[in-house]
Amino acid sequence: MGGYEFQRAELDALEGVVRDPTAEPMSLTLPLLRHITNDFSHESRIGRGGFAVVYLGVLPSGLRIAVKRLSNIAYMNESAFQNEVFITMKATHKNTVRFMGYCSQIQRQFIKHHGRHVYAQLVKRLIFVEYAPKGTLDAHIGN
Fold first, then answer.
1. In the chain, what are the domain boundaries?
2. What are the angstrom distances between the C-alpha of 30 and each of 35, 42, 121, 126?
């Protein structure tokens, strides 16, 4: 599938979560999220916040989700991220978008830092939620 390494079953499971409002949020792989956001392309970008960029994810069926790519927040360790995901999974309200899942990938690789090669830990964290085509809440609230 275009150089992306994910299983068709993972894509089918995501379709199921999007279609079923009672489905439990799930964990996805980064390659799948790259695929549905066209490799996090500029054209797929639909928003930006203080700690994240939001991309439109389009599934083969045409269903859409919002994929929030969190900036590399040094102070949030894996345990804190998992706790935040757990709390978000339990929070539901008619005025909020539905939390559908997350991706957390920690990778070690050599990078150049201040002219030297160092072995660094690269952390990629994303969450995905129901797509709200009318934009953000602050766009609809008057001053």
1. 8-132
2. 9, 17, 16, 8
68 marked ligand binding residue: yes
Tokens of 108: 């070690």
Strand order in the sheet with 64-70: 26-27, 99-113, 116-130, 64-70, 52-58, 45-48
**Distance (Å) of CA 97 to CA 73, 138, 143:** 23, 14, 23
Contact between 15 and 63 under an 8 Å Cβ cutoff? The reply is yes
Indicate the CATH number for domain 8-132.
Answer: 3.30.200.20
Both tokens assigned to 86? 């757990």
pTM here? 0.78
Task: Note down pLDDT in tens along the chain; length 143 residues.
Answer: 455 667 889 999 999 999 999 999 999 999 999 999 999 999 999 998 778 899 999 999 999 999 999 876 656 677 777 777 777 777 777 777 888 999 988 888 888 889 999 888 777 888 898 998 876 555 545 54
CA distance 10 to 53: 23
